[in-house]
Model the fold of this input.
Amino acid sequence: MKKVVSLKGGSPWGFRLVGGSDFRSVLAISRTTFGGKADVAGLKPTDKIVSINNQPTSTMTHQNAKDAVKNAGTTLTLEIEWFVIVFIILIHIYLNYFHSVNITQNLKSLSKSLY
Done:
């Protein structure tokens, strides 16, 4: 799912970036500052950044993304994609609640085979 978040008031925006085309990974938020603009707007670590001020991030290097954020002025608009984390959470819930017996048995047999 995608959402558009506009942060107002200028920097500091209250988040750190990770990734970029030079790292061969998507741009994402690595952390937010508690009570900062990003945190108050609902941004979370692992949110994928699809665009910065309507500029697609798919080919942005890490430095290009930092520059785009730095040069945003008084309003920073981020398009965020967050379905990946929702999918991971659903898998985690599924594995923990529906397969806990099988996982426990598999781990026990794996640990026996390692010794």
Q: What stands out?
A: The mean pLDDT is 83.
